[in-house]
């Protein structure tokens, strides 16, 4: 059949919805795709961009998944988590955080990313504001925007330890503020909030009862130098009625592909999030939920060994970067990222005669000249910095750092 009317032609060309107009494909994914394309062309590219541990999922967790399949646990489950998993999560919150959540205050989703999505979808009206300190994990602002909200970005640079201060929070709160979103330890900075860091922020929140707190504790188990992880509700129980405490199995148990995240929060919010989930996925994967029960209830001692290995790599990255003229790197308290300042190379010229104007020029140069893929600070809302993920083998890491040093020494 011939297509000859305007409406038929229009119907064929895709027009994206306005809600995604300002949201591009994640810069991290773009850099990964470029680095992989170069690898396919034969360049020896080392990618320090991945946000996932290079360790394997523990064997006991894999066995639990296999046993669940053999028991026939391959059907839809309860909408926002099996009772077994919710019980394991409640026990985890009790044991590790000293916080009591009942089963109807707990929700499980397809990754912590979906927890964030469900929470914002369930709570944000057009124009509602969400305070997000930068540098931030890029999905935060994108999800807020998809949900019609307004991300209010507050720069928190290396001088303040990449942490939001109480006066900044106080100034950013308006009658439209719905949430403040904190991530400790942080992706991308690795900075974490101690109890003393949290207290002044909590004081501010106690004075603004309309503001809810969302905390992303995803990297809780990856902390160094005896840092004492704490979650805000454990510090101030009065915040519990308006806090969503997010966590997951992806990073601690090297289970990124299993897609299980969870949260504890007030019943009404948890119920509203379930409404969104019921129309999005019906439930998280049954087999992954069984595996996560084992991850949370099973032996935890291997976490220490992994932490020690990450710490070793962190020390290597921090000391090597700090020895490079023009680069400064704060030692992060946790996670497996460093967010190094590259202000000292801005204005310099590469051997090919290109002037480095921004952190993305620097990371482009590292990819092209040194064949090392890292992510510019601009992708996380704060410049001039670059993020290194050190969740990679020590041999590869050492070689990547050697190449970065060499590339920097060639700048004029
Ligand atoms: N929060 C932070 C800070 C993250 O870095 C990530 C993963 N990159 C997530 C949440 C999401 O984790 P997942 O969806 O795998 O549970």
UniProtKB/TrEMBL annotation:
Protein name, per record = Aminotransferase
Q: Could you provide one GO biological process annotation from this protein's UniProt record?
A: amino acid metabolic process
Q: How does it assemble?
A: Homodimer.
Identify the domain of life: Bacteria
Q: Report the Gene3D superfamilies cross-referenced here.
A: Aspartate Aminotransferase, domain 1, Type I PLP-dependent aspartate aminotransferase-like (Major domain)
Native organism: Rhizobium paranaense
Protein family according to the UniProt entry: Belongs to the class-I pyridoxal-phosphate-dependent aminotransferase family.
E.C. no = 2.6.1.-
User: A GO molecular function for this record?
Assistant: pyridoxal phosphate binding
Instruction: Write out the entry's keywords from A to Z.
Output: Aminotransferase, Pyridoxal phosphate, Transferase
What sequence ranges are listed for the domain Aminotransferase class I/classII large?
45-404
Q: Does the keyword Nucleotide-binding apply?
A: no
Q: Which cofactors does this gene product need?
A: pyridoxal 5'-phosphate
Q: What class of enzyme is it?
A: transferase
Which InterPro entries would you find in this protein's record? Aminotransferase_I/II_large (IPR004839), AspAT/PAT-like (IPR050596), NHTrfase_class1_PyrdxlP-BS (IPR004838), PyrdxlP-dep_Trfase (IPR015424), PyrdxlP-dep_Trfase_major (IPR015421), PyrdxlP-dep_Trfase_small (IPR015422)
Q: Which reaction does it catalyse?
A: L-aspartate + 2-oxoglutarate = oxaloacetate + L-glutamate
């Amino acid at each position: 059949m011939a297509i000859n009317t305007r409406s038929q032609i229009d119907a064929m060309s895709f027009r994206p919805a306005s809600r995604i107009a300002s949201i591009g494909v994640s810069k991290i994914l773009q850099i990964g795709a470029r680095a992989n394309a170069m690898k396919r062309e034969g360049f020896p590219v080392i990618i320090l961009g991945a946000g996932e541990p290079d360790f394997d999922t523990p064997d006991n967790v894999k066995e639990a998944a296999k046993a669940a399949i053999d028991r026939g646990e391959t059907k839809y489950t309860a909408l926002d988590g099996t009772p077994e998993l919710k019980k394991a999560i409640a026990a985890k919150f009790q044991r590790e955080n000293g916080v009591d959540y009942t089963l109807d205050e707990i929700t499980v989703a397809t990754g912590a990313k979906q927890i964030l999505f469900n929470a914002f979808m369930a709570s944000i009206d057009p124009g509602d504001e969400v305070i997000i300190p930068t540098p931030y994990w890029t999905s935060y602002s994108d999800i807020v925007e998809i949900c019609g909200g307004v991300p209010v970005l507050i720069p928190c640079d290396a001088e303040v330890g990449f942490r939001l201060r109480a006066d900044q929070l106080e100034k950013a709160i308006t009658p439209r503020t719905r949430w403040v979103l904190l991530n400790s330890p942080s992706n991308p900075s690795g900075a974490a909030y101690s109890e003393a860091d949290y207290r002044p922020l909590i004081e501010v929140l106690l004075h603004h009862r309309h503001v809810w707190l969302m905390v992303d504790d995803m990297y809780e188990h990856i902390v160094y130098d005896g840092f004492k992880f704490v979650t805000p509700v454990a510090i101030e129980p009065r915040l519990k009625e308006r806090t969503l405490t997010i966590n997951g199995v992806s990073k601690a148990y090297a289970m990124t592909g299993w897609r299980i995240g969870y949260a504890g929060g007030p019943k009404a919010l948890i119920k509203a999030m379930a409404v969104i989930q019921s129309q999005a996925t019906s439930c998280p994967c049954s087999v992954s939920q069984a595996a996560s029960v084992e991850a949370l209830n099973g032996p935890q001692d291997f976490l220490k060994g992994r932490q020690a290995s990450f710490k070793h790599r962190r020390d290597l990255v921090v000391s090597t970067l700090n020895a490079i003229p023009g680069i400064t790197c704060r030692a992060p308290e946790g996670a497996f990222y460093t967010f190094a300042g590259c202000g000292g190379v801005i204005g310099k010229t590469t051997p090919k005669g290109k002037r480095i104007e921004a952190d993305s020029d620097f990371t482009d140069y590292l990819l092209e000249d040194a064949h090392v893929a890292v992510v510019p600070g601009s992708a996380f809302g704060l410049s001039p910095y670059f993020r290194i993920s050190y969740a990679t083998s020590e041999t590869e890491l050492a070689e990547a750092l050697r190449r970065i040093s060499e590339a920097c020494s060639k700048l004029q």
